Amino acid sequence: MGQALTRPEHERDAGAARAHYAASVSPEPGASADRRPVPGRGLVLVVEDEPAIADVLRLNLRAAGYGVEVVGDGASALEAARDLRPSAIVLDIGLPVLDGIEVCRRLRGRGDWTPVLFVTAREDEVDRIVGLELGADDYVTKPFSPRELVARLGGVLRRTRGETTTAEVLRAGELTLDLTSHEVRIAGREIALTATEFDLLSHLLRRPGVVFTREQLLSDVWGYAATAGARTVDVHVAQVRAKLGDASPIRTVRSVGYAAERAPRDRPAGAPTDTGDGALEGASDPGPRS
Predict the structure, then answer these.
(1) Stretch 253-279: mean pLDDT, rounded?
(2) In 3-state terms, what secondary structure has residue 42?
(3) Distance of CA 23 to the CA centre of its chain
(4) Same domain, residue pair 29 and 156
């Protein structure tokens, strides 16, 4: 690593700032900035008007396995947050016209509690306090280490998703998911799920009863923008249901999306249940409807 960049150097020398951030593009030895998003990492919306910094954030977040969407102004940020439903937002405070604090204020005002990590070059502590009071989850100050930002973002997502570093088992009736070993069992019998199927099922079971839209699941589980195709979610839900049979806790909410039940076997064993989209859960799953 080169010599640390001081705040005065960052503010008066754009070239030095670009060189500083470019020096930390890859957070891990051998990491590829073009790697595909890792299932379960989620989509991160980066709101940054300085192209050099936006590029470095994009590269580092992609190298860490996140899906990334970049916009350069506050109005675009509000639109992207509404349309893409990201898992987290990295938000520069010093945006032109509509600054980051106002963007955060408007997000919270419309009931959007997507985790926000502020990026700021401002010295004033008041800005950081106001941002945190508005509901921001954390902040980093320019000049920053891209690796530190990625680490802080990971911490924010672990906290907001309720993740822990200790062994944890999710249960729904006779179904158990071991989040440490990635083992899935029904009444002690192991069920083989793919990594994506496991991430989808565990994401739903972490918040039983909460209805997720297909767009939210694409963002949270796959790390894709909503435009990637919601049928991806339907296909994977059908696959999970087929493997779990009557033990599947996933229910369909008509015209909305999917939710998980804690005790799906409270219903009579083997009894088909209306999933809300015309399919019967507990019967053979016909797969996504055209």
Answers:
(1) 60
(2) coil
(3) 27
(4) yes
Condensed to tens digits (0 to 9), the pLDDT of residues 156-185 reads: 887 666 555 555 899 999 999 998 888 999
Among the listed residues 53, 107, 108, the one whose alpha carbon sits nearest the alpha carbon of residue 77: 107
Please answer whether residues 31 and 63 qualify as being in contact, where contact means their C-beta atoms are separated by less than 8 angstroms.
Answer: yes
Cis peptide bond upstream of 143, omega within 30 = yes
Beta strands in 192-266 (DSSP E): 212-213, 250-253, 257-260
- Same domain, yes or no: 79 and 157: yes
Host domain of residue 95: 7-161
Are the C-beta atoms of 251 and 285 separated by less than 8 Å?
A: no
Question: CB count, 10 Å around CB of 225?
Answer: 20
CATH number for position 233: 1.10.10.10
Residue 81 has a CB neighbour count (10 Å cut-off) of: 23
Point out the domain boundary residue: 128, 161, 194.
161
pTM strictly above 0.70: no
Same domain, 11 and 152: yes
- At residue 5, what are phi and psi to the nearest 5 degrees? -90, 130
